[in-house]
């Protein structure tokens, strides 16, 4: 029988929580350390493609994820920005047919919440408000506030784009930006968009507009009464890895 390890995962995001479920499935003792004091309701819709759903299904999450999945009417349309002409379209079930597993659309926060609930129910210990400041690679151990040390047999770094763990392992703490683009996420009251006859048809499926230096996506309805519109454009607004900055509307309009 494989040894049962005591594993610490740094970061309670989608990667950290999924890893926690997988490692728990193999019988290990798993603790997730998350710096925020509570789950953060960030992000808009997220598309889970068959390579991801295959794994979630393997770990027994089909039912709970299907309840959370928002069925999107109609096709996904890819359009020319200038006149809305449809350049290509795709049905969501084409992906299922091609790869044998479904494609789900969910709210990113909901996915994170489900993963946390499942992990918790299966015996993963999730500690909120536990920011890791450093790691001893030899022991191995992590260091929290006031020098509190936590030892483990294995430490997994799932602490996102500005990972402390990656920096400690590779010695490279410099954060390199790979793109001049930024993304503005805006939630509009769905009723407002639906009350405009010109916009209403666009609220019924997934639509993407592609133009020079900009892509606009109207995605599936969210869980409340909102519809998420994402604007990907050249932008120096905000800072990489800082998800809390409010965008500047004038900069968005100018782009
Ligand atoms: C805010 C946000 C919104 C997004 N929105 C969308 C979307 O709408 N649609 C879409 O398709 N994709 C979206 N994405 C992209 C996709 O969700 C990400 O690729 C995915 O979240 C990456 O998961 P992750 O677990 O690797 O990193 P993250 O989600 O960044 O999770 C890392 C976790 O580690 C924690 N952490 C960081 N440092 C430490 C530390 N030192 N100690 C303890 N904990 C720490 C963080 O608080 C965080 O909870 C979004 C990503 C983010 C971050």
UniProtKB/TrEMBL annotation:
Occurrences of domain FAD-binding (ranges): 6-190
Gene that produces this protein: OpS4_7
Coiled coil: none
Record-stated family: Belongs to the paxM FAD-dependent monooxygenase family.
Pfam name, any one: FAD_binding_3
An example molecular function term from Gene Ontology annotations: monooxygenase activity
Annotated InterPro entries: FAD-bd (IPR002938), FAD-dep_Monooxygenase_BioMet (IPR050493), FAD/NAD-bd_sf (IPR036188)
Name of the featured protein: FAD-dependent monooxygenase
UniProt keyword terms in alphabetical order: FAD, Flavoprotein, Monooxygenase, Oxidoreductase
Keyword Phosphoprotein set for record: no
Keyword Flavoprotein applies: yes
